[in-house]
Please model this.
Amino acid sequence: MKPSIPQGTRDFSAPVLRKRNYILHTIKSTFELYGFEPLETPAMENTETLLGKYGDEGDKLVFKVLNNGLSNPDKRESVISDFQAVLEGKTNKGITERALRYDLTIPFARYVAMNYSQLTLPFKRYQMQPVWRADRPQRGRYREFWQCDADIAGSSSLLHETELALIYSHVFSKLKVPVRIHLNNRKILTGLSALCGGEDLMMDITVAIDKLDKLGLEKVKEELIGKGLSMEQVAVVESFISITGSNEEKIKQLEDLFTTVPVGMEGIQELKHLLSNCKNTKQNPDLVIDSSLARGLNYYTGTIFEVKANGVQMGSIGGGGRYDDLTGLFGVKGIAGVGISFGVDRIYDVIEELNLFPENIQQGTTALFFNTGEEQQQQILLLAEEIRSEGIACELFHEQAKFDKQFKYAERKSIPFVIILGSNEMAKGTIIVKHLSSSKQEEVDKHQLISILKG
Model:
């Protein structure tokens, strides 16, 4: 059988991992600059922890883990019924009690709820781990992918939204990726639902709006009609998502629309506060109000973010928002929260397409010691340990072979220096260093080796 991997997953070679680690290190160092501390949670959560938190469509994308033994294995009809419930996004303890995490936010909320009395509030954590979604694989969308989240629990201060916008700006500035940070507010969307006749329409409207980029306006209108909205209600939604102009012009149009809707006006004020705060910072991130932004997840309650790269055909490369009572889902009421996420895999694709990875990112081994025989090996091992103690990566070729073979190994691995210690050099206390990029070769005193490799 030909070996393969599951669709929507990938192997990562050294060149790819070095690029990914560059991204991860940039994000991690920025999180820590802003005072966030690390957290990791299990790959699997109890099914009831995850289901019911992402909306009906999100629940269908949760990977359920089958129990080791199925209940009632001899009752075929019961087992089929249990499986059907699972396929519909429901849970059934006879079939599955655990699931792979869908994102990092719900596990974070579960952690806060379990450890609330021991936490120093506000609790600022970052988390960088893989997540899994039973989605249809395509460019920039995988079934297994990494997320990098920063969340704050235990504070309602709008200062945190400003801080998170600055983190986005800081990271993408360091990565040299030009981005726009799209903003909306779920309170405005709640106000839109009220204008359409009732807050019970909230999920139908936000789920449909969230598909605007993928489906286009006409398909979104068809979906809303299919959900039972009247033509008049659909017209209100259409006028809302069609708002254009500068941020100031959009604010004015939104204020005109929601004059009689207090919750909508509250959301507008929160956006104005964020825009004002960021405008006076050194980062001055490129923020744009986007009335079509919905982020169709149930738990958002305030400002929502979505980051898109300029000049690249790619979906969002980051997103998040405020969720003022997420831990209430786990019995701990009244803990405000807000957070953002970076989509590492899409960021990688964007940087690759824009050719923005640093030239020296593939630097692994700095020097290769040629294997020149048993007599020289002990001396070479001592030299290798000495330069490793200075933080310089090096290798000793695994066998005594023709120089041509050893040169080819160094070239294929892009090792910049070759070091040769033969019997003649041992007798003189010297060593030969060859720079592969320039073919320059010099015989130097062994004590000069470290300064040459560092230089």
Q: What stands out?
A: The chain has two domains: 14-42+102-354, 363-454. The chain is about 40% helix and 20% strand. The radius of gyration is 28 Å. The CA atoms of residues 187 and 266 lie 7 Å apart.
